[in-house]
Structures are given as C-alpha cells and as structure tokens.
Amino acid sequence: MATKKKKKILMVGGEAMPFAATGGLGDVLGSLPAAVQAEMKNADVRLVMPLYSAMKDEYRKMLQLECVFEVDLAWRKQYCGVLSLEKDGVIYYFIDNEYYFKRPDMYGNFDDGERYAYFCKAVMQMMPRLGFYPDILHAHDWQSALTMVYLKTEYREVPEYKNMRGIYTIHNIAYQGKYDMGILWDIFGIDYKYASIMSYDGCINLMKGAIVCADRVTTVSPTYSKEIKYPEHSEGLHYILRENNYKLSGILNGIDYDYYNPETDKAIKATFTADDLSGKAKCKKALQKECGLPEKKNVPLIAIITRLAGHKGLDLVERIMESVVANNDVQLVILGKGEERYENYFKYLDAKYPEKVKALITYDRDLSKRIYAGADIFVMPSKSEPCGLAQMIASRYGTVPVTRETGGLYDSIKGYYELDGEIYGNGFTFANYSEAELKDRIEAALGLYGDGDKWTRLTKKIMNIDFSWNISAKKYIEMYENLC
Ligand code: GLC
Hints:
Distance between the termini: 21 Å
Radius of gyration: 23 Å
CATH architecture of the largest domain: 3-Layer(aba) Sandwich
CATH class of the largest domain: Alpha Beta
Helix content: 25-40%
Bound molecules: alpha-D-glucopyranose
CATH topology of the largest domain: Rossmann fold
Strand order of the largest sheet: 3-4-5-2-1-6-7-11-12
Shape: globular
Oligomer: single chain
C-alpha cells in the first residue's frame, strides 16, 4: 500500500512565543503550529521567524546551525544563517542577521521595510538549502507579506515553487507596511513590471500585495473578515478585500490551554478550577496586596489589561471610569503601556483614588496572569478587535468579560441574560461605540456580582467554555487540505 506523502506546512511570521513576542500575533504563532501538528497526523509543520536580540537564552542555547548563505535583495548581498530547534513536534527556524535583527526593538526601526524584505527573501532562498519546499506557505501580517508576493512573481515559474500554495492571515489590518513607490526595486527587490500588484493609494502597500497574491486570505475571526470589507474597519483596504472576497474567510483564534491553565499555572498565587474556586479567592487577596489595595473579599475587582492604544476603546473608558470608581464600592487594576494620554489618565485615577485604583504602566506576562486570576470583571471595549485573546484568557481564569460586540469579541462573548432561572451568555456586551453603553454594562456586571450565587454560576460557566485550538486548528487543516 502506498503511503501518503506528508503535507509540508511552513508558517512565516515576525514573532512567536516563547522565543520573542510583543503581542497577540506572538501568542498565536507560539501555539497554532503545534496545535496543527498534533491534529494533522500526516503533516510536517514548521515555522520561520527572525532571530532577535530578544530571543531568550534558554532557547538560544538549543539552536543548531542548518546553513549559511547570502541573500540577494535587489543589489544587496546579505549574510544569512538559518538556525533551528524543535519544540512540541514543530521545527522552528530562525533567520540570523545581526545587522538587521540585533536591535533593542523588534519593530519600529527606520528600516523595517528593508529588514522584513530581507527576512522574506531569506525564507524563499533558504528552501533549496534546507531541501524543504512546503506545500503550503502560510504568512502572517505585514512582516511576512512579501513571501506571498515573491511566490507569485519572481518564483512563479520556478519548478519547486510552482505548486506551492500561499495563505495570508491578517491579524490586524491597521499595520499594512506602506512605503514610497520609488523604492520598489531598491528596497524590496521587486521589478517595476509588478508595480500594479504592490501599489495602493499611490504607495507600496505590502499587505495589499499579499492579499492579491495569496491563494487564500484569512483573518482571525469570522466577524472581522466581514467588517474589513467596510470603511469603518478596513483602514482603507475595503476595495481590495471586496475584489478578493472569493478567497477571504475568518477563523477564530484559540489560546494555549497549557500555558493559560489556572489548574497548573505556576505564575499565580493559588491554582483553581471551576469546581473549586477557593484558589481564585486567594489570587484576589494576593493581587490586592500586591497592588496596595484593601484586601476585601467582597468588593468587585475590575481589570483592564491592554496595549494603551486608541482602537482598544480607551477613550470610552476615559469618559466613564472615574464615575464608576467614585460612585461604587469597586477596585480597578490596569496593566499596560502605550499612548501617553491613557498612561496619564490611569496614573491620575491611581493618584486620586489610591484605595481603589492601581495603574501598572508596564508589560509583564506573569503579572498579567496574576491579574486575570485575581480579578472579577474584565473590561475590553475595543473599537475594533480582529480577534482578541484577553477576553478568552480572562474567561479561562474565571473573570467575567465586559466587551464590545466587534470582531472576535462578538464571536467569542455573548451577552448575559436570565430566563426561567437559567443563565445564558458568557459576559456583558454592548453594540454601539458609546460610553453610556459601556457604563451600563459595567454596572450590570457589578449588579450581578452582588448576587453571589448567580455570579458563581456564571464564573463556572465561562471557565468551561472551550477557547482552546481544538476547533480552530481543524478549520486551518481543512483549508490546507483543500488547497493541496
Ligand atoms: C492582533 C489583533 C488581536 C488578535 C491578535 C492575534 O494583535 O489586534 O485582536 O487577537 O493579533 O491574532
């Protein structure tokens, strides 16, 4: 009997947990490959990302050198080392070039366009050296968008690449990679005969190029895949997404159920489960202590954990939170950094209500877990949210989300109601981008908190919802199989 050839899948992205990550993309790329590998028996799943200064030593030590060569990027020849390690059945490749990646910040450098053009070229050019030509090349966000473009331009007729299929996943349409048209060849190494693929609104747009070139385009939730066809959410790309609608779909992210597990988590004060919530009460007490807040068991503790960026809905928070804090017996803990305006606002609340508010202006994963575990209510009123992972993590740790009905928040959190003694939904949600609606839903959550029994039932219920990769990994696999 002939054995079926293994399907080779190569994911490409700018970051992945636990090696180096700054946000949700890193969470997803740190868990999706292993979830696919575990579920898709006849697959060989690998991932490639840059080797940053931020790479943790414990992993750096495990790296093995695969090959060294020179990458051709326009007129440049640049060193490239490919290193690898294996984790959870997945091979991770790291592109090493200290000139481009030995920097304090992963993103936000003046030459990001060139850095990621180099990275994408290196990915294409490493394949013959590794003897690994994937059946599916799955790129994520703007940093790896050019792999889709190179695949369908320069490599289009190259035999080994010809049948490779490209999938492009948009994690956040706000970051597209826009550059002056004049540098198409010089920086990106793309011939001007392909200018029409890359140009959008008078400039080079890497994300647009990937949307045009990929065989399938996905986003990280079904609702977001619909929203981005309209100007409110598209950041200008709705025309191109409508044209490519036939290949566009949305698959909801999952979270890493081993890393985020209140039953085993070493980062939290006490572990707990839906059946035994006593550990959660200990986590709350410890959090209050850590934040210098009165250790009161029955005062609801509201948490906000987010990048302090405009589209996270913080302008709504800014308009109502002082009144929520002043007029209710509540506590509020904020974790995040970002725009100065919001940092200052939360510092102001902290200074004015030291017995009620703690503003932690930083980014710290273990601290975030202590907050997810210790809080009662999690507020996430995003203006736009491709998927959002925080509402899922909060649920897993028994912290009831208050969310706006947009993107992945809409797909994962449904509004609470009661009927004939039954409770429905798994959070408090509102539709319009309005501070009045946000305030109303926070107060509804506070009200239900006062009814201890129903609150406990809701807490147990949300902890038992499956936000793991179980369902979504299967959807990716189905797409891979259909494409091959
Ligand atoms: C981006 C999005 C977020 C999503 C994450 C992972 O960070 O803003 O909504 O959950 O990517 O896909």
